[in-house]
Sequence to fold (661 residues):
Amino acid sequence: MAQITYREALNQALREELDRDERVFIMGEEVGYFGGAFKVTDGLLAVYGEKRVRDTPISELTIVGAGIGAAMGGLKPIVELMTINFALLAIDQIVNSAAKIHFMFGGKATVPLVIRAPQGGGHQLGAQHSQSLEAYFLHCPGLRVVIPATPADAKGLLKTAIRQIDPVMFLEHESLYGVKGEVPEDPEFMVPFGQANVIREGKDVTIVTYSKCVYDAIAAAEVLENSGIDAEIVDLRTLNPLDMATVVTSVKKTGRAIVAYEGWRTGGAGAEIAAQIHEAAFDSLDAPVVRVAALDSPMPYNKHLEHASLPSAGDIVKAAEQLT
Amino acid sequence: MALERDKHTAQHALLTLHESQLLDLYRRMTLIRRFEEKTAEMYSRGKITGFCHLYAGEEAVAVGAIYALYDKDYVVSTYREHGHCLAKGAEPRVVMAELFGKATGISRGRGGSMHLFDQDLRFMGGYAIVGGGLPIACGLALAVSYNEGPEVVCCFFGDGALPQGAFHETLNMASLWKLPLVFICENNFYGMGTLVQNAISQEELYRFAEPYKMPGVRVDGMDVLDVYGATMEAVARARAGDGPSLIEAVTYRFRGHSMSDPAEYRSKREERIWQERDPIKNLRRRLLTEKRATESKLGEVENEVAATIDDAIKFADESPEPSMDELGKGVYASEDK
Fold:
């Protein structure tokens, strides 16, 4: 298997799906001639042309709305939002249209639309360019929320997203584009939705996480091992569908759980996961579920303040030590 | 200038349409009027609830515009969409059943008055966020263009949608990509209770076409032939690959914004003036004066329509409620059985 980056894995998935299905096309700001603001669509325009790799004006609401309309018209659009922060300009079409059309039109319309967007902090981009907004979409019935951590999952989940029929928010992390990993080259390699991945087995505490925090959890587990704490790590991979069965099985074994995520602590995805753990496994818990998340504050520009605002491996270690 | 052209277009349509077509226009408008009158009655009887926005007074716009389309062409609409949906060919039975919230409704009782939809009729939905249908219409037109299809997308919206960003983004994109779109702005002078001149800096709404480099025209939205004529031109342009057009149809809703609005912001005098311009009565008078229809033929149509709507009410009333087993289902297409 080849070692490629998360960015290359996404690019590969896009190429394979563009090759496989004529109805698949990409649309978004700077996806063509610029090659994507984060270079995920790099090189695609030259191969597939303007029809299938379409640069758009800066009009997020209508980019997403047009993606919905094109999907209803029989195409399989992949819309790229330059960053998740701009999804807020399109939230009407995402929440009021994409998420509801299948239901409110009596099941007769489908919206096979994938909306890709990078999110996350850590690059000193300030308050408006450092957000992790997965909880916004998790909150809304009708949307699938996919949030891969590894290059293999990035590829396999994106291919699944493109081939299925529900609208998908596909959330990438800006800090992960350069991360390398083994990725199958088989064009039929897919990662199913709703299957969490136990990436490290342990018996003392379960760390439930996704996206970039998976790497913080891995680093934390190594530190914890030295102090005799054996951590199990569950990478959720998709938040909708949410594989609570795998989480609950793990928590019943370890008796303790930390939810680590980069969204704001209050009302974040971790709050929902913690609540569900309490509902499903209260009797197995030796301690309340703990959240390790971002500070409830707009992101400061200053490097040290930004670092301290984000959840880290150290925070996870501290939480685990207090729990065990 | 625009009004001179309008009269010409309408007169041309009157001369070129066959008697059966003129009668068909009359039938469609009468059907919508009767449907809306009965809807109001059913609302006051508690058979229909929720928000309900009636189209009475504006029939000439939906009927005239949609008459210029082929069955395969798409229509995207708003929350005041009973008229568009019926004009696109929906059975009054299933539309009324939807308003009653019944399982037999066009959206299975899930949508209600504001969310009618029928993929087979290419009636692509009523959207209840002002301006919400515009970007979706843009996407449908993009799909047509992508597939090099012959279809045209006709997108209806009210004057209230013009100050929305979605309107400007969509017109820009549609023009930029020369999409096969016809934008039809139903200017009924009020966005809910706010006058157009209190909401929009340019009250000649068709002029918004100019910055987006597309033709813009103002038509008499109380004259079905005028709307039809102008839409024919716009549709031909779209189908030929020359891009979108904007039609402003000046019209008037005979009732308030919704069933709960007594329209106290309008004067009785103003309402009377517009009642005299009733698009259905005017077409009737014109067809008789120009000897394009007989009193007995028109009477026949009216009776037929009345029977159709009575049947729709009966069907809706007798239809079953959606099953409680449906609760929580239908959210994800991938989970449908």
